[in-house]
Design brief:
By secondary structure, the chain is α/β, with parallel strands linked by helices. The strands form 2 sheets. Strands 8-7-6-9-10-11-12 form a 7-stranded parallel beta sheet, sandwiched between helices. It has a 5-stranded parallel beta sheet with strand order 2-1-3-4-5. Helix 4 links the parallel strand 4 and strand 5. The protein has 2 domains: about 130 residues, NAD(P)-binding Rossmann-like Domain (Rossmann fold, 3-Layer(aba) Sandwich), CATH 3.40.50; about 180 residues, Rossmann fold. The model has no long low-confidence stretch (mean pLDDT about 95). It has 12 helices and 12 strands. The relative contact order is 0.16. The structure holds (2R)-2,3-dihydroxypropanoic acid. The site of (2R)-2,3-dihydroxypropanoic acid has 7 residues, from loops. (2R)-2,3-dihydroxypropanoic acid binds next to loops.
Length: about 325
């Protein structure tokens, strides 16, 4: 059995595949594969382990309908035509749970960096502007005791809520389509209508999947509803906010600041005004990029591949309906 891997994954997962006697082809070039290249490789393999491959649309699955499994090296599966894969009987797997803590830590890192103006102050030192420090100068604000509004309170949002309630005594409000009773019990989280959450939160953190419903959810009107002292954090998907509107809101100081681990598009252009702003911090989609987490993700993906090659149910299926 042969698996094609489109990026360099950790030895943890790779070893698992090799131990099982699977023949592995791994694309090691620094260039991103085109959809056509990915199809060409997949045609010659039984399974595909995909780290962020663009273009997994209906056409891709039709061309590669022989694949026994596609294992994503991510928890997110936006950009993958799950319905088309299911129709063709191809199981799709992802890597849930193992990246919850790392992603929540990334959100927290952004919250602290923005609230304490850390990047702006770092740049000031580099420019030789660390002069007399007045007690009233360049102040940030405390997270302690403030209200954190979580949009999409699932597993990653719950990790963030845990950290913020336990360490900072923050109050949690959230907005989901359906109530998260566990979180209400554990964190005393309060469900609010979306607009009320925007108005009440000192920090709004996005943890929702990118769907037709959430695309462009945060635009100028939504930023305007937030407190001028509030910060906006997105570690979910760049498509959930409208980047031009965010830039405008930051320029007009409608909000205090923004921290992004995800942008629209990715990679972000080095010319983006966000990179020059004192009140914005941008990371290059590093939510899950710790050694421990990436090792675990590669294991999950490898386990999905092995199960799929044997014709067994994937341990982490995205489309369990493929079995019915
Ligand atoms: C995920 O796993 O979905 C992360 O965002 C990395 O893409």
């Amino acid at each position: 059995m042969k698996v094609f891997i489109n990026k360099i994954i950790p030895d943890h997962g790779l070893g698992l595949l090799k131990q099982a006697g699977v023949e592995v082809t791994m694309w090691r070039e620094p260039s991103v594969l085109t959809r056509e290249q990915a199809i060409a490789f997949c045609k010659d393999h039984d399974a595909f382990l995909s780290a962020g491959q663009a273009g997994l649309d209906e056409g891709f699955f039709r061309e590669c309908s022989h694949l026994k499994v596609v294992a994503l090296h991510s928890v997110g599966f936006d950009g993958v035509d799950i319905a088309a894969a299911t129709q063709l009987g191809i199981p799709i797997g992802n890597t849930p749970n193992v990246l919850n803590k790392a992603t929540a830590e990334t959100a927290l890192l952004l919250m602290l960096t923005v609230a304490r103006r850390a990047l702006y102050l770092h740049r000031k030192i580099k420019k030789g502007e660390w002069g007399v420090s007045q007690p009233t100068q360049d102040l940030g604000f405390d997270l302690a005791g403030k209200t954190l509004g979580i949009v999409g309170l699932g597993r990653i949002g719950a990790e963030l809520a845990r950290m913020c309630t336990q360490s900072w005594g923050m109050k949690i409000v959230y907005h989901n389509r359906t109530r998260n009773e566990e979180a209400e019990k554990e964190f005393g989280a309060t469900w609010l209508p979306f607009e009320e959450l925007l108005e009440q939160s000192d920090c709004v953190s996005v943890h929702t999947a990118l769907t037709e419903e959430t695309r462009g959810l945060f635009g100028y009107e939504q930023f305007k509803r937030m407190k001028p002292s509030a910060i906006f954090i997105n570690t979910a998907r760049g498509g959930v906010h409208r980047e031009d509107d965010l830039i405008r809101a930051l320029r007009e100081r409608l909000i205090y600041g923004a921290g992004l681990d995800v942008t629209d598009p990715e990679p972000m252009s080095p010319d983006s005004p966000l990179l020059q702003m004192d009140n914005a911090v941008v990371f290059p989609h590093i939510g899950s990029s710790t050694v421990e987490t990436r090792n675990k993700m590669s294991r999950c993906a490898a386990e999905n591949i092995l199960a799929g090659l044997k014709g067994e149910r994937l341990p982490y299926p995205v489309n369990p309906e493929v079995y019915s």
